[in-house]
Amino acid sequence: QVQLVESGGGLVQAGGSLRLSCAASDTSVYAMGWFRQAPGKEREFVAAISWSGGITYYADSVKGRFTISRGYAKNTVYLQMNSLKPEDTAVYYCAAGRRATTRAEYDYWGQGTQVTVSS
To answer: Which of 6, 64, 69, 71 is in the most buried spot, having the most CB atoms within 10 Å?
Structure first.
């Protein structure tokens, strides 16, 4: 069973930045994605990256503000979040699977990390 460990969440003012990290417990290389869920809302896609790092996908709501990337250790992925807005407030989940997709069709999920953006 692969475990995903997220870190980097926290409280930030609107317009600020945060970087989320996600590390997989094994050395296999997976396609990875980030999803988020705000209170009272369904989980939604944020960004995804292929196993090679050559293909990325973004939700329209974060395009131009968020950047997903892979670390030197290919089992690590980052989500750089700039120009944060209060509507970005949510629990952010890391996911890993066989292919990058905007759908929640990943095999493994992290426990989530809280991101709160104050106005």
So the answer is: 6
C-alpha span between 21 and 6 (Å, rounded): 5
pLDDT value of position 28: 79
**CA–CA distance, 32 with 78 (Å, rounded to integer):** 10
Alpha-carbon gap, residue 119 to 111, rounded angstroms: 26
Mean of per-residue pLDDT scores for the chain: 95
C-alpha pair distances (Å), 28 with each of 42, 59, 77, 96: 30, 26, 13, 10
Q: Which amino acid is at 113?
A: T
For 79-114, the pLDDT digits (tens) are 999 999 999 999 999 999 999 999 999 999 999 999
- Please count the other Cβ atoms lying within 10 Å of the Cβ belonging to residue 30: 24
- Token pair belonging to 107: 């095999």
**In sequence order, which residues have a C-beta less than 8 Å from that of residue 118 and are 6 or more positions away?**
11, 12, 13, 14, 86
